[in-house]
Structure formats: C-alpha cells, structure tokens
Design a protein that fits this description.
By secondary structure, this protein is mainly β. The protein has one domain (about 5-410): 7 Propeller (Methylamine Dehydrogenase, Chain H), CATH 2.130.10. Strands 1, 24, 25, 26, 27 and 28 form a 6-stranded antiparallel β-sheet that branches. Strands 2, 5, 6, 7, 8 and 39 form a 6-stranded mixed β-sheet that branches. Strands 9, 10, 11, 12 and 13 form a 5-stranded antiparallel β-sheet that branches. β36 and β37 form a beta hairpin.
Amino acid sequence: MDETSVRGLLAIALGDEPPIGPVARNSLLAGIRLRRRARMRRAVSGAAAVAVVAAVIPAATGIFGNTSARPRTGAPPSVPKVPTGTAYVIDSGGGTVAPIDLATNTAEKPIHVPGEPVSLTAAPDGKTAYVISGATNSPGASSDQTMTPIDLTTDTAEKPIILANPADAMGIAPDGKTGYIINGFPSRTVTRIDLATNKLGKPITLIDPPIGIVMAPDGKLAYVTIARGAGINESLYYFAPFDLANGKLGKWIKLNSGDPASIAIARDGKAAYVVSQSSSRVIAVTPIDLTTLKAEKPISIRTKPGPTKGYYGQPLAIAIAPDGKTAYVADGALSTVTPIDLANGTHGKPISLSGQVGSDAIAISSNGAAAYVANQPSSTVTPIELATSKPEKPIKIGSGWDSGFEAIITVP
C-alpha cells in the first residue's frame, strides 16, 4: 500500500473535509497553492497536511518571462499585449513535468521525474526548478520520497535527493542558496536544504502540521499556514511568521475563513492574501497586514456551496498580477477565475473556463499579459487573456483523471 492510500484511509477515519494548504522572492507575487490533492481527494483527506504549488516566479526586477509572437489587440497600456515566458505544470499521474511554450501555447516534451510529483518550485534566478515527489508502488517507480532538481536551461532532470520524511512543498530564500521544505503530517517539520550541495539540515519540529509556506522579500522570515488539531472534528487554521535564523514561529493569526488553500504576498511585501474554504464550502480571501500581523475582513468570493455531484474536490489557487493591483482566484468546483481589486478589496465578474473542470492551479505570465490555469480532470491548461478576461483554447497535456495538475509555474 503506497503513501497516498495510507493517508487516504487515515483521512476517512479522522475527518470529512480535506485540508487544503500552496516559494521565496521567487514566489513573492505568486499564487501559492500548497496542498497535495490529486489522488487524496478521492479518499477525502482529513488528517494529512498536504501541499502543492502554483506560482509565478519573479526576478530581481520583476517576474520572469521570454518572448511571445502571438499578437493581441485591445489591451490597455497597463496590461501587455503578448504573454512572455515558459510555463511548467506537474502531471502527478504521469510522473512528469510538462513545459509549455507560451509564445505558441504548445506543450513540449515532458520531463520525467521519480515517483508522484506533488509540488514545483523555481529558484529566484529561474534557472532551476525543484520537484517534490511522493513515493508510489507503481511498477518501476520510485519507492522513496524525493526532490528532483530540473535544469530549466536544458529541461533536464538531475539526480534526485532522497528525503527522510514525506514532503509537501518548498520555499526558497531570495538569494537562492537555501530551501525550506515543509513536512506536514505526521512529521510536522520544516527542513532546511543547502541548494548548492543538496545537503539536508536537521528538521525543525513545529507544534502542528505546516500546510503552506511563502518567503518574505527580506529573506529573514517565511510565512506558514498551520493546521491545529487536524482530523479532529473541524481543525483550526493559522497564519504565522517563521524566523529563518532561529527556526521559531512568531505571532499566530487565526484564519476564521476556513482551510487555507493558497497564499499570495503583495508586491511590496506588506500584505498577504490567504484564500480559504469553510466547511460549508464558502470561499473567501483574507488580507493580512504583515506590518501589524492582523487579519482584515475577508473578501467573499463565493457565498454558496459549490457543486459536489460528479466532482471530487474543491481546488483553489490565487496569483497576483505583476503590477500588484489585481489578484486572481481559481475555483475548481465552479471552473472559474475571479479577479480581485486589491486596492478596494472587491471582486469582479468570474471568468468562466467553459467546462474545463478543475482550475487546480494558476500562474501568470512574466509580463502579466495572460494567466494559465491547470485543469486536472480535463488534463488541460487554459490561457486567459487578462486584458479582455477571455479564456483561450485549452492546451492538452496528460491523459485524464490520473493526471494531477496541481502545480504550475512560469519562468523566462
């Protein structure tokens, strides 16, 4: 029996609502979708803290990108006409990472990695990505928990790093030298890794399982979401600073809006936005003032439960545009993406993905021209032209429900 099956059985015994929980200066503008969901949703997880990433990776002067040749019209001056960059999306069922050429919206040759990939993080310079994979008993597959570096200049997977504990996601310090791996249930740890030597440090044990992690721009703090009492009736969820020097948590902020599915940090680093779902499947985004560590009034995205028949989960993800003015929340149950005006805390009309069920993860091109939404059940990635809020033709990747499109990033 593999790790996912064991977690699923524990979940069924302990709870009925899956915890949803997400990178560095490399994810400062990112929507961090930190939860392992693809297969666990089928078992309805309740005990394990799980993690998956969806991110846009900024460079020192902004978010990464490369050149696009696709013309667009009608874009206001604040929104570029053409998207830039390359996207990478994990396919858990296929054990691959698929590059997408954003100039042509074409999926390129997939990169094979060990085990079942559950999260994807890129270094701040955009030259290397790191894939965390869970063990699997599939024939010929890895039986270890691993983290695999991928050289993004050649799209080549390097030698995997064996991890001692099941891992959910990683944040990377702004200088690109150190990674911080969160290990949720059952180890409840944060583990440092020297990215120059790939040497793991001694795990730092937390009181409760971490769900997600993002890095502050000054490199001194990370911010983590935490599940307290996971699997015992309804868990309590918190947001807290994590001191990278001494490995200690600061003030805990209770998230009254429910399970934290994804985190995004404002461009200036002064605010965080946590998208959550309550036990009644109501969706809200909680702004957190990082200068005072106070949660502000949640922004309601969906006030009625989403559909459950014919669909097995409620994936959520958030990403912030490079100009810092708008956040986009992907709602997998409704197959929509909702823009939020961060200046006044109001949301706009949801963008329908025309039946591309899933909306598991979202990332934005380096120049903010387009968003890219990974849809697991349909095994597609849907581009959205942000100047017009118009979805474009989905990009086909993978082969079906086994394809866990839980993490997507963009780099140059």
